[in-house]
Amino acid sequence: MTSTTEKQTYPLTSSQREFWFRQKQHPNLPMYNIGGYLDIPGEIDTNVFNEAVNLLIQKHDNLRTRLLATKNDIEAPNQIYTSHSTVTVPIHDLSAESDPYSTALAWMQPQFETPFKLTKKPLFHYNLLKLAKDRYFWFFKYHHLIIDGWGIALLNHSLAGLYDALIKNQTPNLQAPSYTKWIRQDQSYVKSEAFQKDRAYWIKQYANIPEPLLIPRYRSQHTSKPISNGCEPLSLPHTLYQKLDKFAQTHQANFFHVFIGILYVYFTYTAQRDEFVIGFPLLNRANAEFKKTAGLFMSVSPVRFNLGRELNFIELIQKISIILKSHYRHQRFPTEKLNQGICLEKHRAQLFDILLSYESHDYNTCFGGISSHLTELLHPWKKIELMISMRDFRNKNGINSNFIYNQAYFNAAEIRMLQAQLIHLLKNITEHSSTPIYQIRMLLLT
Fold it and tell me: For residue range 374-396, what is the model confidence (pLDDT) as tens digits?
């Protein structure tokens, strides 16, 4: 790679700061590597693809992010943007292998789990894998510091558009909003009256610190630190999703509220608790321009549910909807600042044991008329007791999800049982929607 660098420096945004400091606690782990691969089942022009990638880097300044070195780990670094970069996307020809698909997967996973060097280096990595004359994988990984899920979908479509323009001998569109506008707005927000109002709101929400929901029963079985994650996939049938979403809409809610309600029913019974906190990754893109900007906007909002067990399920999802709408008005406030404000480190590592991510982004694209399909790659180093990642790929194949769990808290059999119980509840809850929560436990499998 060759590059020249702009002298203008920028601070990290609030979201970037959180990822930076957490990553610095475990510098040798790929905790915030995100990405996957696009399966392109057709013959593409690799030279044009490489040219399109270079135009992509020119178009979106987040791909030209470089972090400057700091004097110590207490300070967050500044960032700069290289004014021009030229890259060559490596091509790995696996077509002569006896099983190119398995070989490709075996090659990509360790690459995906390789940590980034955070300072003065690119925070993304691209490769093309040739499985056959008419099949390619585009492997990509990013550090979360420069991108979120929405941004990955945006870049996928942007690259496909650039490739198509080049194939058709058209002038590519290189206009895209700069991430620096979000940096400046974030700085203004931190100094604003709105920031202080949001701070007061969240401090009030956590005037008393909730007890952890989950217990690390298996910690003594693991000598390594940090303890790695396991993962169990789960697919929710499209017909069941449609049924539940229709049910929710008749009660001024949606499927997301139904799923949260099911988690509430399950954990208030199994943990014998009337309240718990879920962390929700939020899009945090308030206008059309920011929705067209590649970069990290996503923030995590810790939402506290304390709704008792007397409500029926319809009342429960309506209350959940109201709570989320109230919190969304204050979603920009950084979790890092909330943790500092309530002195969380004296009590626990973070406010929530469960992270629930629900995405409905369109990651799939077409390259010269060839439809591609995205597969997410995962690594075992996410710092959360239980993460449920749900993705609606906007097709009739249902909702794909991964239950990523810390092995100090769960084993695989327990997660599979949890999944079975949640599916059982989802299949039957509409027929018991008027039943008080404390009685819905009869639906739980034994």
Answer: 999 999 888 899 999 998 765 56
Using alpha carbons, select from 108, 147, 148 the residue that is nearest to residue 131: 108
**Separation of CA 286 from chain center:** 18
DSSP letters, 22-91, are HHHHSTTS-TTEEEEEEEE-S---HHHHHHHHHHHHHH-GGGGEEEPP-SSTTSPPEEEEEEEEE----E
3-state DSSP helix/strand/coil % of the chain, to nearest 5: 40, 25, 35
**Encoded tokens for 243:** 């049924």
pLDDT in tens, 257-283: 999 999 999 998 888 888 889 999 999
The angle that helices 412-428 and 255-270 make with each other, rounded to 10 degrees, is: 120
Report residue 125 as tokens. 């990595």
Say if residues 367 and 42 touch (Cβ distance below 8 Å).
Answer: yes
Q: Which DSSP string corresponds to 85-136?
A: EE----EEE-TTSSSHHHHHHHHHHHHHTSPPP-BSS-SEEEEEEEEETTEE
- The whole model's pTM is what? 0.92
